[in-house]
Specification:
about 400 residues; alpha+beta; NADH Oxidase
Length: about 400
């Protein structure tokens, strides 16, 4: 080998090492090797560490709740003997949620976590839920007020799952069916919530029909520039954005295989258009196709604020129940989001009419949709903002 050829080989090898080193650095920088690490995930452990903080411990439980697009649209005012729950209008999804219906579902989830935590921490709660309508402008004041007094602690199996509740967006095992007991237990979670009912269906024809609604609604949302702009604003595609904002949708919680997550983090594949295609493909090929059951939370009035809170409480309960039983669950709210969008635009309510056939009662309207099953891989947590970020007056 000539000296010039040897120099060329050495140069190529050097460039290869540099490229490998750069790839390894980027992988480390984007959190490929440390999923769920850093300050954005500390609240999942802080809930256990703050059990002796009195009312503040309830806020630590609340911030672990589910919310639309992980917007975490809550604020809390902690007073002696009371906590107020407020909506944070800065965390609205805009065209994706024009009436704040989903925002208030998320507030209901946070409320349920506080009520569960209060029982095990020895606090009796008197709950006030001021009425309001979401289609008449954003109601002012707190959405809920919890009066607190000391009481004997009570055991609660759902409270023990607060830090284990995560949304499972990946594939479910289509060979494992939900037992008759579980199919009865899920609707039972809403039994004491006035005006709220849960419908679960496993019939193949119903599942196929509802799955088609979910896929069709996803296609319509992707074609709606205003909806997608509102959604994309909450996408945290980099480790730095995730740790800075500590909210929003992330690759780690998208239900992808670890290999695909790693590739997506390292390679420049995170364009909005590409992510929209991946979302549609995952909805059709993974989330709809592998679900063994679909469910709906239904109410008589979509825009009654108290009913929205109760519906959110029902969803949070079902997720906590699922986490305590090894059951995987995920929202599939695209058809409901199209109902709100049609209403805001003043167009024919085609989506609402199609969904009416799934409730079993023409007087009830779906306000939340989900799938349930047994996941093939564990779910990763989503980032959470710390307590000090969500306290009013802090």
């Amino acid at each position: 080998m000539t000296s010039s050829r040897r120099s060329l080989v050495k140069a190529a090898a050097g460039l290869g090492l540099v490229a490998c080193g750069a790839g390894f650095w980027r992988a480390a920088h984007e959190g490929v090797f440390e999923v769920g690490a850093g300050p954005a995930y500390a609240p999942w452990d802080d809930w256990r560490a703050g059990l002796n903080e009195g009312p503040l411990a309830l806020v630590r439980a609340a911030i672990l709740a589910a919310s639309p697009h992980n917007t975490q649209p809550w604020l809390f005012r902690v007073e002696p003997g009371a906590i107020e729950l407020h909506a944070d209008p800065a965390r609205s999804l805009g065209a994706f949620d024009p009436f704040g219906r989903e925002l208030h579902l998320g507030l209901g989830c946070a409320l349920e976590n506080m009520l569960r935590a209060a029982k095990v921490l020895g606090m009796a709660v008197s709950l006030e839920l001021p009425p309001g309508r979401l289609d008449a402008g954003t109601p002012s004041g707190p959405v809920a007020r919890l009066g607190l007094r000391q009481a004997p602690p009570e055991g609660d199996p759902l409270a023990s799952a607060l830090a284990e509740r995560h949304t499972h967006r990946g594939p479910y095992d289509p060979s494992r069916q939900l037992s008759p007991e579980t199919l009865a237990d899920l609707p039972a979670q809403a039994a004491d919530l006035d005006g709220v009912k849960v419908v679960v269906f496993t019939d193949p024809e119903q599942r196929a029909a509802f799955g088609a609604e979910v896929v069709g609604a996803t296609e319509a949302i992707i074609a709606d520039a205003a909806m997608m702009a509102a959604s994309d604003a909450w996408a945290r595609g980099s480790q730095s954005a995730l740790q800075e904002h500590r909210d929003g949708t992330t690759l780690d919680a998208a239900g992808l295989s670890p290999w695909l997550v790693g590739m997506a983090k390292v390679l420049p594949l995170n364009s909005a258009r590409a992510s929209h295609r991946h979302w549609l493909a995952a909805t059709r090929e993974v989330q709809v196709r592998t679900a063994t059951a679909f469910g709906l939370v239904v109410v008589a009035d979509l825009y009654d604020r108290v009913l929205c809170l109760h519906a959110g409480r029902a969803w949070e309960r079902m997720q906590l129940f699922g986490a305590s039983r090894g059951l995987a669950m995920q929202p599939l709210n695209q058809p409901l989001e199209r109902v709100d969008r049609d209403r805001s635009l003043g167009v024919e309510p085609a989506a609402a009419r199609r969904l009416a056939g799934f409730t079993g009662d023409p007087a009830l309207k779906p306000t939340f949709a989900f799938r349930a099953g047994y996941a093939l891989q564990p779910a990763n947590p989503s980032p959470r903002r710390p307590v000090e970020w969500v306290l009013q007056g802090a």
